[in-house]
Specification:
It is built from 18 helices and no strands. It has helices at residues 2-26, 31-36, 43-70, 74-102, 109-115, 123-155, 159-206, 211-228, 231-241, 251-259, 266-297, 308-316, 319-357, 363-385, 392-416, 422-441, 458-475, 481-495. 56% of the residues are buried. The longest helix is centred in the middle third of the chain and has 48 residues, at 159-206. The termini are far apart. Belongs to the sodium:solute symporter (SSF) (TC 2.A.21) family.
Length: 496
């Protein structure tokens, strides 16, 4: 049985490495191509790459696990994510694509934050790069945790072995082919995830007795849940829906918009991306809910709810197909891990190495440094991931809130408000990050819990960051003429 499953996984690994070699020969002549694919990525690849790198292992493990435990409460999280992703395509994607090129061809988000104010090496660039390195190390580890759990539950391998296999393959194709390899593998991985998240819940539903009765029960449960919520219950709904705010500040997602062929292709990417996301996120929630009914009907034991997709794949399908479905989890994991490794590497090289160590580094040296940093960040994240008690969704929620609050308001103000200043941006990044950390960890409640146990830390961090940006910008000198000119030029191009 395992040999068939492993065959599917091995074929998947071979495909990912083949794409890495192709990208290495096609788009790694300099660091610009390595980090952004030469800004020549098609809308369909951009859309599925953004979606696959966004959803990660939590889409096939964390979210189904949450739906398995909490039922239809997970719908609110899914709805918040859909709204956030849609608004991100409308407000951020086209403007960021144009503005990063107008602002002296910025290759990273921290570099854009600096060059938005006509500065090469401002404090906001350094601070933003440190935030990226800190939170992405944590975020990357969540994907490796998911990989370890997959190999442990699906193949009876040790958790640490699963982590090492996952990170090894990702390092290989990312080091080889850079952004193009990551984007193309994301496209393939997105297609695999789409089919898998449609197949598993549908086949599981087909095995249930009285399917129409269960469907009616789910519908009535949702109606009852909505009708019975009091003010505290709706506060919980708001807490879940605020996940959508995180999209504006996720470097591994919005960097995709910087690399698309043209801002005019964003509309096509949006249509493809939102269609993909709607189907996959509904499939993930249904996997958890239907999985609960399936395990109850057939009296199937499950130790970890986050492995419900793995369990259903193994029970319902032939081992060869089950291996392909498990490859969908690997696809989700690897697409995000590779994106995060590349963004972390770009910050280390472009925003740290190039500024503090070797300002006149050659393209060849920068390319080597980028590849080396991919390995270094992966090594640290692997060490964090060896704590197998970590929950995938818990780790993702912390990193998602950190980026959303620290970068989201700065990105929006940078693209939409001409008056924002460098000092305002610095205040926003620091205020958002500090608020999230305090809200998540400070034991300020009477029972010793943190405020994050009551309400998700993203919205408070987002609000505090926005206030800091606005207030500090008004208290400091207006941006210089070059900065204002860049802003006007961007708006003119967008409005053409």
């Amino acid at each position: 049985m395992i040999s068939f499953t492993f065959l599917s996984i091995l074929l998947y690994f071979v495909l990912m490495l083949a794409i890495g070699f192709y990208a290495m020969r096609t788009s790694t002549s300099d660091n610009s191509e390595y980090l952004l694919g030469g800004r020549n990525v098609s809308p369909k690849v951009t859309a599925l790459s953004a979606g696959a790198s966004d959803m990660s292992g939590w889409m096939l493990m964390g979210l189904p696990g949450a739906a398995f435990i909490n039922g239809l409460d997970s719908v609110w999280l899914a709805l918040g994510l859909l709204i956030g992703a849609y608004v991100n395509y409308i407000l951020v994607a086209p403007r960021l694509r144009v503005y990063t090129e107008v602002a002296d061809d910025s290759l990273t988000i921290p570099e854009f934050f600096s060059k938005r104010f006509s500065l090469n090496n401002s404090s906001v660039r350094i601070i933003a790069s440190l935030v990226i390195i800190l939170f992405f190390t944590l975020y990357t580890s969540s994907g490796l945790v998911a990989g370890g759990k997959l190999f442990e539950s699906g193949f009876d391998l040790g958790y640490e072995t699963g982590v090492l296999i996952t990170v090894s393959v990702v390092i290989l194709y990312t080091v080889l082919g850079g952004f193009l390899a990551v984007s193309l593998t994301d496209f393939v991985q997105g297609c695999i995830m789409f089919i898998a998240l449609a197949m598993v819940p549908l086949f599981a539903m087909g095995q249930l007795d009285n399917l129409s009765g269960i469907t009616s029960l789910i519908t009535s449960d949702f109606v009852t849940e909505v009708a019975s919520k009091d003010a505290l219950g709706w506060l919980g709904v708001l807490s879940l829906m605020t996940w959508g705010l995180g999209y504006f500040g996720q470097p591994h997602i919005i960097v995709r918009f910087m690399a698309i062929n043209s801002h005019k292709d964003v509309k096509t990417a949006k249509n493809i991306g939102m269609s993909w996301m709607t189907v996959t996120i509904i499939g993930a929630v249904l996997t958890g809910i239907v999985g609960l009914h399936y395990t109850q009907q057939y009296n199937v034991a499950i130790d970890d709810p986050e492995t419900i997709f793995v369990l259903l794949s193994q029970i319902l399908f032939h081992p060869l197909i089950a291996g392909w479905l498990l490859a969908a989890i690997l696809a989700a994991i690897m697409s995000t891990v590779s994106s995060q490794l590349l963004v972390s590497s770009s910050s280390l090289v472009e925003d740290c190495y190039r500024i503090f160590i070797h300002k006149e580094a050659s393209d060849k040296e920068l390319l080597f440094a980028s590849r080396l940093c991919v390995v270094l960040v992966a090594a640290v994240a692997t060490g964090v991931a060896f704590n197998s008690d970590s929950g995938v969704l818990d780790i993702v929620s912390s990193a998602w809130a950190g980026f959303g609050a620290a970068f989201g308001p700065v990105v929006l103000f940078a693209l939409l408000w001409k008056r924002m200043t460098n000092q305002g941006a610095i205040a926003g990044v620091l205020a958002g990050a500090i608020t999230v950390i305090f809200w998540k960890h400070a034991p300020v409640l009477a029972n010793g819990d943190a405020l994050g146990s009551v309400f998700y830390e993203l919205l408070p961090g987002f609000i505090v960051s926005s206030i800091a940006i606005y207030a500090v910008s008004l208290m400091t000198d207006e941006p210089n003429e070059k900065t204002l000119s860049q802003f006007d030029k961007t708006q003119s191009i967008i409005n053409e």
